[in-house]
Amino acid sequence: MSIRNTSWILLAMVMWTACGVAQAADDGVWGPYTPIGVKGNTLEMLKHRITLDPTGLPAQIYIKADPADLPLERRGEKVADAELVPLGRGPQLRTPLRLAATIAGQEHTAAATAPQRATSTGKGEVACTAQLKLGSLGVELVTRYDCDGAMVCRMTLNGNGSEVQSLELVMDLAGLVDTAYPGLPAGAQPGQIAFADLSAAVPAGDGVVWDSSVKGPNAPKSPFAPYLYFGSGDRGWTWLCDSEQGWELDPKAPALLLERDQAGQATFKARFITRPVKLSGKRTYEFALLTHPAQPRPKGIRTAEWLAFPAGQTVAPAQFDGRGQTTLAAREKLKALVRAAGGKTDNVLLGGLTAGALESLGSAIEMTGPACADILSAEKDGAGLYPISLFRALAAPRAVPVRVRPNVHQVVSAGDTPAVGRNFLGRALLHDAAVDLAGLELPDHFARVANELAEFGLFEDDETEVIPYWRTRGIVQYGEAFDAAGGFELTEENPYARVHTTVYRRPVRESGKVVGYKALIVVVNESDRPVRERLILPDPQRIFGGPNLLQGLDAAQHLDFTRIHALSKAVGWEYNDWDYSHLVGSWVKWKALQNLEDNGSVQENSAKGRAGEIYGPLFIRPHDFVLLYGYGRLP
After folding, report:
1. Nearest-angstrom CA–CA distance, 479 and 226
2. Which residues in 299-328 are b (16+ Cβ under 10 Å) and which e?
3. Residue 417 — very low, low, confident or very high, per pLDDT cuts 50/70/90?
4. What are phi and psi of 384, to 5 degrees?
5. pTM listed for this prediction
6. Which tops the pLDDT comparison, 26 or 571?
């Protein structure tokens, strides 16, 4: 069956309402994936390496680093795991996944009485079965691993009447966890949900930092959560569970939570039982964990995002339990459909509020409607309706082209505030995603930005490094560090908390040899007020390979005074105020960062004895951005 047939549309409409977990038509691989390699207790996949515990659960999930994931200087080198973890690569677990329970007041951890053994293997999936003992409970755990790194589990408890106070799956994570997104209610429309309630940010601090408790008049009666993305903008996981049948939940206790210890290390818990219950007989649970990104970044991904976005039939996630989440059943149905179409995903365009969960089964993700795309007015624009953390959860860390298609052209007319469309551009650049320029109010106004991105080399993926805003601490900083507890701050909240910076780097070559690096620094002001502060580069070597060498004169050379200069000569003035040598004299010989849009300069300021470089003040309008350029040479 061709996925391009009209029957695809009908089948897509039917499959999203299906219940249960369907078996795939065969065990073949699909898309860019390769057959799973099995060596002992290790599963080798295209993007992941999973080491199995005797329970059949992962003892380790290793996300392989692509060259594009690494600093330019380290590409082609062997990079230690300790350096990969902050990038969202390498080993992702501090301890093996485990099942834990409190039974008759005693805490227990599941142990294998009959260690996992392969019950079926195929090119695209491997399944194993293990018999476990969890206190007085017997547990059969059947775990299937797909070639995209997905883990699908069927857990069957065998109770003997003992009272169980708690039962949970525990996942001790390595690396940053600053994002948790449980999806939005079905039919959610822009502006219907309060800005704060849309946040996908995990607060700083220790203890329980996020949980699935939902408050408000439309909150579900049960704390059961069928869908959750958690992790960071670099990597993360999607939790899927289609039914709360068999769950024993205290209405006041969350089913899912994230907690953090005092060292900043995060743990995810899925709690199947949160209230005392006497278990007798068998009870079965089915759930899945999908690891993102699911594949390496394809070559030419930025070109595809900005210039040649894939066409195809848009598939939205399933509607489930009154919410608009992707379900495990939907994933299985789509996987079977893709396999039946010969393993091709090039015509499956993913959309909706939880499209990222299905990244391995589509060719691209398009953010539309309430997925941080539709606005209501010039005042209720993208930055006013959708927190940046929600954009991050939807756009990253996927390894397929991601584009936001706004409706600005339908709401704002040409000549109105330009910040509405510019905010979409700034947000996309912060997340290494793209914007459908046709959705902006006057696309040709943004031609200069697109041209500057092309001239910088942004679309040449092989030699472009991205340092996203959640990883620029210690590299670039807008304004002085804010210390709310210091007693000297004039405001209770950081006035620059909604100013974000992402850095793009490329090599500078002479005779084919890398002699330094050039950088594009994207600074976005998400706040409702203009900001004016200094831009601090604590470590210019990390950005430019050495000190920034660009001067105001370099930027001025891009300015064109020829017409006004010719006019002044024509009227006979001997001393020409618009002569190039007068305009770009000694006053532009200071070090600077160049504004790529208007070729203006942001002058270096005194570092006042501190390490690094300081520029500005830099003024940014509300919901707007600036593109700054500099370059350096290696020592």
Report:
1. 41
2. eebbbbbbeebbebebbbbbbbbebbbbbb
3. confident
4. -85, -25
5. 0.90
6. 571
